[in-house]
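Support request from a user on the community tier.

User writes: "When I paste my structure tokens into the form, the page sometimes reloads and wipes my input. The last time it worked, I copied everything first. Here is what I submitted, just in case something in the input itself triggers the reload:"
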């Protein structure tokens, strides 16, 4: 069993108020609580878009973690391409400049879109005995 090691932040690696800077400074993914009450960690991913020759798109993958028991992934949400560039590194760097507050707002929009029209949170459903 491996244990995480605490590493003190290295503020020389970037601006921790951005998603890329936070990950560089703290040497770990950022994490947020979604509007659904679940914890989500954040990863910046890139891929060739296929829309233009040599175009790379960067997007955010939010890993949803199980609420109880072992720390295991329970699902995920992902954004559309948020930046595009001629190289993977350029697309990743451009998205890395996104402020953390904007990343959290994006997560909440994705959670709301997945939640659907009822808008009920898990704790409301449990309190109401699961009635819709």
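"...and here is what came back when it finally went through:"
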């Amino acid at each position: 069993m491996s244990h995480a090691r605490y590493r003190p932040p290295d503020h020389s690696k970037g601006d921790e108020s951005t998603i890329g800077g936070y990950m560089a400074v703290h040497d770990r993914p950022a994490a947020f609580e979604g509007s659904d009450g679940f914890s989500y960690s954040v990863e910046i991913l890139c891929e060739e878009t296929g829309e233009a020759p040599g175009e790379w798109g960067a997007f955010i993958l939010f890993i949803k973690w199980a609420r109880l028991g072992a720390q295991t992934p329970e699902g995920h949400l992902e954004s559309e391409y948020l930046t595009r560039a001629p190289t993977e590194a350029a697309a990743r760097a451009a998205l890395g400049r996104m402020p953390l507050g904007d990343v959290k707002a994006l997560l909440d929009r994705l959670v709301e879109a997945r939640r659907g029209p009822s808008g009920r949170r898990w704790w409301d459903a449990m309190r109401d005995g699961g009635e819709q």
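Agent notes: The reload is a front-end session timeout and is unrelated to the input. The beta strands are 31-33, 39-48, 56-65, 73-78, 83-85. The chain has one domain: 11-114. Escalated to web team.
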